[in-house]
Amino acid sequence: MLLRFASFNHPDLVHAITTRQGGVSEAPHDTLNMSFSRPDAPAAVKENRRRVYAALEIRPERVVQAGQIHSDDVLVVTEAHAGRGALDRPSVLPPADALITNQPDLYLLACFADCTPLLFFDPVRRAVAVAHAGWQGTAKHIGAATVRAMGDAFGSQPADLQVAIGPSVGPCCYNVWPHVAEQIRAALPMQREVLAERDGQTFFDLWQSNFETLLACGVPREQIEISRICTVDHADRFYSHRAGNGVTGRFAAIIGLRGEEH
Ligand SMILES: [Zn+2]
After folding, report:
1. Residues lining ligand 1 (ion), CB within 5 A?
2. Taking burial as the number of CB atoms within 10 A of a residue's CB, which of 66, 79, 99, 143 is the most buried?
3. Per-residue pLDDT averaged across 217-232, rounded?
């Protein structure tokens, strides 16, 4: 049901990437679809989410989700947002593709099916973040926007950050249209190795691109963990927009820090 990062091993840190296993949704959303935005039964998604929250020992009224629109907008999540988007669609926060918080016992959630989840943990300032990085967010340097926002809001230093780059469509499977490749090339001129030509097609490496963006803003190389799990090749374990021809569910990335009372 849950995938965790070996480097995110702080005792107060709660985090996970959900898989497809352990839920109640029926095909083509089988079984642990975490998204209310898909044409899946809302009651099934609600049950799936309840199971995940229970497994993580967190309360739904402490979970927060925002809309996702492939932007590089960052939202500072506060107590006032607690519970928004946790168990239904209407209460979801307005769009922001990165969520950051330093409030204990608030858990940030975002949904994915081929886009790259980025998770951030600052053990010094006790802050966390989750970001949604598809090709557009990646080309907009959403990883850097998140690091910057954590610095501005919490005083986080890039050198203190632990970052995880989660499962997404890999460089093996992510062929992009020529006009997309052109936009990526224009947006990421310093990243020479992230586009590769093969069999007359252009492939984009979301993992390497986000890695290089994080390095460029000062996150130490040894503090960045990359899952290197391609969702297209592992569509039995993770939802993949491409493998499912656009008809599938979404898995979630969740992160937060336990409060003192726990
Ligand atoms: Zn692949």
Report:
1. 170, 172-173, 230, 232-233
2. 143
3. 98
